[in-house]
Every structure is written in C-alpha cells, then in structure tokens.
Amino acid sequence: MKIIVDIGGCDFPHKMIGGALEAAAAHPDYDIVAVGTKEQFESYGKDYTRSNFFAEYVTDVITNDDSPTHAIRQKPNSSLVKAISLVNEEDSAGLVSGGSTGAVLTAATLLVGRLKGVHRPVLAGLMPTAVDGKLVCIADSGANVDAKPEFLAQFAVMADLYIKATSGIESPVIGLLSVGSEDKKGDERTKAAFQLIKALPLNFAGNVEARDALNGVYDVIVCDGFSGNVLVKSTEGTAKLVMGKLKGAIKSSLRSKIGALFMKKSLYNLKSAMDYHAYGGAPFLGVKKPVVKTHGSSNELSTRVSIENVIRMHEHDIVSAIAAGVATDATTEA
Fold this sequence. Notes:
The chain is of the alpha/beta class and 334 residues long. Helix content is 45%, strand content 17%. Helix 1 (13-26) packs across helix 11.
C-alpha cells in the first residue's frame, strides 16, 4: 500500500520530505509517495533516494491565496490535485497534506467524495490534556464554521468511532462545547444539538466549558468549526506564551538557571507535551479515504506522526466503521 504526501502548499517542504523519509524508514511495508515541485525537492538538499520513497513532480501548487474550488479546477497539475488522483487509486491507504486547509477539505469532499449519509465531513484534531498520555479529539476543529444541530450530532458519532478504532477506548466520553456546563446553557443550536446527542447511544457527559476541555475527562469535544478552531488556536497560543514566559523566568537569574538544571528532564518532558507537532495533523472524517490535514508549518515530527495516523486509520478500517455507524445514525435522516 502507498501513502500520498502533498508537500506543495506547505511552508517548509524540506521538513515534510524529511518526515516522510522517517516514516518510510519506520514502515517499510508502505510506499511513501511525496508530491511537489522539483524545486521543493531540491530544497531538501540531501539524497532522498529510498526503496519505498518516491518523488512525484508537478509544476504548480495551490496557495492560501487561491479560491479552493477555482484552484482545484484551474490547476490540474498542482500537487494537491495530483495527490488526490493518486489517493483515489485502489492501492492507496490515504493522504497527508500540508496545503491550504480550504483547498484540502474541498478536494477531499469533491474529489475523494463523502460517505453516503454524511451531512458534512468533520476535521477531528487531537490535543494533549492534563492527564499524561491522554489526548482529546476536537470535532470540528475548523472545517464547518456553520453547522446545524444534526451536523454536530453526527460529528459526535464519527469522532466516537474514530477514537474507539484508533485509541482502543471502549466508551469515549463525549462533551459538547458550550458557555456553561448546565444542560440548558448555550445558544439555540447548541441546545438542539444537546438533545440530539443525548438521544444517541454514546457516552455523552453533557456540556463542557472551554476551560475544562483539556482536563482529561473527555475523549471528544463536539463543536462547530468556528468555535473548535478558536479553541485549538487559542490553546496553542497560550501554550506558546506560557513556555516563553517559563523560558524567560529560567534565564532571569543565576539561581533560576541552576534550578533549571535539576529540572532539565521534567522541563524537556513538559516542552514535548506542549508541542503541537507531536500530535500530527487532523483527520478529515466522513470521506471515502483517510485524509489528514497537517499544519502548514509542519516539521519532520508532525509529518511522520500524520503519516502514522493514516496508517492507523487504514489498518483499523476507520472508513468502513464510520460508513456503518452513519448508516445506523438517526441524525442521518434529519
């Protein structure tokens, strides 16, 4: 099986190439096919020849300034369009892309295709929590800024199946992002979604405030893409701020520097836990092949982890699991 990696629209193609090569070395049973311009591959600056790594050259890329639908039609030799054509082949396990979020999601929806019964595919990002080693899935983390209550309910179904399949959690705890934890808090959409999710055979814990989203209690936080993206980005920004302040405090005096030496291992572990690159990109659930949208600023680590996420999704046949789950989901007919 092959995994397609679109490096065309990312910020650091040489880092994505490095991460793809790491994944190829760690997973010799898979062929890694990276798609980008010849200049982008030359930017790697080293030999990328490997028996299960292949470079697919194109002449164009889709940028963040392009209109997604227009660019997909007008740039047939772009890295994303070529990557999508490769991922649609029978021997392809899935796609990782560091390109424009709008373009990737549009291409995945239109060219890979939605599963039958799926209202809107959902971007299901993973974030660290207060419990060591435990992650929480934010569904939606940026794909659907306007989501109807039945969409939110279906996001819960798809994210529940994804976490069950890839994390081994038998009964994921689902929370609905709101402005208060009480059942009747939120706007009309949230209140309606609450009732729909409550009626589903899920381990639904009710509303959750943003400040509690990462407390380790929840496995899935359901929200619209606007709120979810704000939650993810504000958390990343806060983590960056705290780590910067901590670094400044350590350097502020000789005593602090000496104290930091005794805490070096703990501080390193903290830095690693707060690094969003360590969790890879967000899978786009509800389409016919595993598609992972990784960060535009992806480095070697986030690229490798994203590829490994595709491998897990493929080996657990998450697409079939979601197709079956959506088929029995009452909100499909809403």
